[in-house]
Design a protein that fits this description.
This protein is α/β, with parallel strands linked by helices. It has two domains: 168 residues, D-Maltodextrin-Binding Protein, domain 2 (3-Layer(aba) Sandwich), CATH 3.40.190.10; 138 residues, D-Maltodextrin-Binding Protein, domain 2, CATH 3.40.190.10. The chain contains 13 helices and ten strands. Strands 3, 4, 7, 8, 9 and 10 form a six-stranded mixed sheet that branches. A two-stranded parallel sheet has the order 1-2. Strands 5-6 form a two-stranded parallel ribbon. Helix 2 links the parallel strand 1 and strand 2. Helix 2 crosses helix 9 and helix 6 runs parallel beside helix 13.
């Protein structure tokens, strides 16, 4: 009886100690608000809280704002894990704001595609989902489906084509892919600008935001738009016949990364959060909810979901990541040239 009581007391002591630790721990991350944050909570945050007993403080901050906060907090960081979709982890790691990650500390790292874990040792956190940029199209009006980026120049689409301004991140990636399909690269965007000028002369339209794309498809007979895979799903949920096609020349990718912040006391918890983010279960959940492409090779998607994303070895083989650092360094000059082109 004494042994049983002693064991019970010890177990209770450990439980109370763990609970007290969890209650006293402040664990802060950022998320992107709206439907994304809803899915983030369902797929990762809530399961993490249930497993660890830690309450997660979620700061709604998009990538640029979150990075500005991280820089401002350099001497006293407040985030434990920080998420980016614009490549800010590259700069953050170089500036020592993010902690290097040993792949061996993540149980799910071995199952990630190589591109998703390439620079963990530098401090660039893994990509836990991908926004793939391809062609959203009206499945009733466009048959067969587009198969390459040069299809955007098809005269049949001229008055039914919607382009997105490059002030929009997805618009920028779509433009750079169009530029590449016309023989340009990050050192020369003129072929892309020339193509845009021709498309506008033929009747194409430029919008700035995703709701405007939906409006054009719903009300103004839009048939095709280069944009992110998840938005085809958004249009379909709104009752609009829409599909997503990857171009044979390649699929620009916006990497959504989860990063461990340097100088925080909760490194073990941060690594656990990152590991849960790259698990197949979390990525299946994100793909189902928002149609983001998984980076874990073990993630299993239904045929319906897989049709909307870059999925499997073949699907991700064509992903292209335009260097975020080069984009940022040239953004102002490119926007100026873009604005001159569309003004004409």
């Amino acid at each position: 009886m004494k042994a049983i009581l002693g064991t019970t007391a010890l177990s209770l002591s450990v439980l109370l100690g763990t609970t007290a630790f969890a209650q006293d721990t402040t664990f802060t991350i950022n998320s992107f608000g709206g439907a994304y944050e809803t899915a983030h909570r369902a797929c990762i945050i809530t399961p993490f809280e249930e497993e660890t007993g830690v309450s997660v403080n979620v700061v709604t901050a998009y990538s640029a704002d979150a990075f500005a906060q991280l820089r401002a907090q350099k001497d006293a960081p407040q985030f434990d894990v920080i998420h980016f979709s614009g490549g800010q982890e590259i700069v953050g790691a170089a500036e020592g704001l993010l902690a290097p990650i040993d792949a061996a500390s993540l149980a799910n790292a071995a199952d990630l595609y190589d591109f998703a874990k390439a620079n963990l040792a530098r401090g660039e956190g893994p990509a836990y989902s991908i926004a793939a940029i391809g062609m959203i199209y009206n499945t009733d009006a466009v048959s067969p489906a587009p198969t390459q980026w040069t299809d955007l120049l098809n005269p049949e689409y001229s008055e039914h084509l919607v382009l997105t301004d490059i002030s929009n991140g997805y618009g920028m990636l779509g433009f750079l892919m169009l530029n590449q399909s016309q023989g340009g690269d990050l050192n020369n965007i003129q072929p892309g600008l020339d193509a845009v000028a021709k498309l506008l002369e033929a009747g194409a339209l430029i919008v700035s935001t995703s709701p405007e794309i939906q409006q054009e498809f719903a009300q103004n007979d839009a048939w095709i738009a280069p944009y992110a895979s998840d938005y085809a799903f958004t249009l379909r949920k709104a009752g609009l016949p829409s599909g997503f096609a990857q171009g044979a020349e390649g699929t620009p990718a916006s990497f959504i990364t989860t990063n461990v912040v340097a100088g925080r006391p909760n490194t073990d918890l941060a690594l656990k959060f990152v590991d849960m983010s790259i698990s197949p279960e979390a990525q299946e959940c994100f793909a189902e909810a928002l149609r983001y492409s998984p980076t874990n090779s073990k993630a299993e998607l239904s045929a319906e979901v897989a049709a909307d994303v870059a999925y499997g070895e073949e699907g991700v083989a064509g992903l292209i990541r335009f260097d975020p650092a080069v984009i940022e360094a040239n953004r102002a000059a490119w926007v100026e040239e873009w604005n001159k082109t569309i003004a004409r």
